[in-house]
Amino acid sequence: MNVLIVYAHPEPHSLSGALKQVMVTQLTALGHQVQVSDLYAMNWKASLDAADFTRDRQGKPFDPAEDSKLGYEQGLQTPDITREQEKLRWADTVIFQFPLWWFSMPAIMKGWFERVYAYGFAYGVGEHSDSHWGDRYGEGNMTGKRAMLVVTAGGWESHYHPRGINGGIDDILFPIQHGMLWYPGFDVLPPHVIYRVHKMDDARFQVECEKLEARMKTLEQTAPLPFRRQNFGDYQIPSLILRPELAEGESGWRVHLQRQRKAARAG
């Protein structure tokens, strides 16, 4: 299996850096091919702007979507963008590893998505009609690939409980997992979250390493989150609101998970 790790932490000798190496070592020992995009080490440019494309706009203002589309189609992207897109094509599984900063990923990783996810590559693909709203949310160019988040957080696990002060971790990660990974077609594996990272002694570090190694061993077998697919009947088109008989009376991110049907009563 080809595994790409997209990694964002500014300090190579941090806990995050050690955990990244644990993953690389374990995956390599299992016989997988591994590439790492270390965004800080690469001095990755975070902002999407006109400098990302060499096309002559003939005095027209920069249009992020249009310039992205033409840049991708015509080979006018900067080489760093093209290299990351090639890594995504190569990968069977992509792991995004980052510390939870202000309830999201570091800006440098958000910039990776904004620049690498070109129009025609990660979005704006497929048929757009009254019955098919583009190839997205379970379809798209990343279909058949797996993705997973490895996240470190300073707070206690209880702080990220559904009733915790920070809000539930699943709520916090939903825009990333559903909107940035499921949207272009990745099968999204349950996240691996490590809490209270500033209170990590050697004994606990060893335990966390063993847990992370276990996740690496099961990457190919782990069942993905059962997100609903957009164009397969669960959503009303063109409103894209979930059909009223599904998750009736509920709202929030959990309604976008397929539910197991209750077994019919015997008798």
UniProtKB/TrEMBL annotation:
<feature type="domain" description="Flavodoxin-like fold">
    <location>
        <begin position="1"/>
        <end position="213"/>
    </location>
</feature>
<dbReference type="GO" id="GO:0016491">
    <property type="term" value="F:oxidoreductase activity"/>
</dbReference>
<dbReference type="InterPro" id="IPR003680">
    <property type="entry name" value="Flavodoxin_fold"/>
</dbReference>
<keyword id="KW-0560">Oxidoreductase</keyword>
<comment type="similarity">
    <text>Belongs to the NAD(P)H dehydrogenase (quinone) family.</text>
</comment>
<dbReference type="InterPro" id="IPR051545">
    <property type="entry name" value="NAD(P)H_dehydrogenase_qn"/>
</dbReference>
<protein>
    <submittedName>
        <fullName>NAD(P)H-dependent oxidoreductase</fullName>
        <ecNumber>1.-.-.-</ecNumber>
        <ecNumber>1.6.99.-</ecNumber>
    </submittedName>
</protein>
<feature type="region of interest" description="Disordered">
    <location>
        <begin position="55"/>
        <end position="76"/>
    </location>
</feature>
<dbReference type="InterPro" id="IPR029039">
    <property type="entry name" value="Flavoprotein-like_sf"/>
</dbReference>
<dbReference type="Pfam" id="PF02525">
    <property type="entry name" value="Flavodoxin_2"/>
</dbReference>
